[in-house]
Input
Amino acid sequence: MDALRFRLKIFIFIFLIILLTGVIGFIYIEGLTFVDALYFTIVTIATVGYGDIHPVTYTGKVLSLILIICGVGTFLGVVANATDLFLSKREEKIRLQKVNMALSLFFSEAGTRLLKIITCFDPALESLSNKLVVTNQWNRDTYKNAHKYINDYNYKIEIHKGNLEELNAFLKEKQVFLLTLLTNPILMEHEAFTDLLRALFHLSEEFEYRYDLKKLPDNDYQHLSGDINRVYGLLVQEWFIYIQYLRENYPYLFSLAVRSNPFNPDASIIFQ
Output
């Protein structure tokens, strides 16, 4: 996309230089007015050639030939690149819609519940929750400040504070669903979400090799803490992106997400 924009800018710049050269040239060489010079330059470049205005001097004819040779190719380059950019934007929009549909499905089926389970491990959850109680009154600056906060937040869980058995059971329950998402080719383009799914599968695999999560050495608990921390950080980031997308595109889904906010202890689906 960026390459297309850059190439289009180059073609537009060259086209404007050719257009300006033609206008100035016909004004001084053929003695045309500015409007006539602009008109003749454009119809020459566009190869329309109405014949109502034509060069009468040798130099003017040479200039016309140069405009036809250089201008036509440049003009076609502008049109072709503008069309490519338009189609690319359309394809990108469709791709993003599909990615966000998959994200919506993930949080509806698993993501929100996962956050509720994992946040129980966070001893500093209150400070994070205070920043993520999203409301309809949030503006662009509020989202910006909250995004900066979660980027800088120290995701450090306390493994004995939460319920490892509940987390393990939930991951087992959703394993087929998560695997289906991981094989979705659309999501492979969304690297952060793919990293989240891989982190979830790795955590699930770590649990699978341990028969009793209540009786593990401290070093092993520390290792599991690192795996949960990785999932926690990625999950919060994706949730925040998901919330912003819903607010901008689907107000009714945003309302449900706000009423089921895992960071809001007072959140309730039921309207009070």
The chain has two domains: 2-90, 95-259. The CA atoms of residues 139 and 175 lie 37 Å apart. The mean pLDDT is 86. Residues 2-90 form a domain with the Helix Hairpins fold (CATH 1.10.287.70).
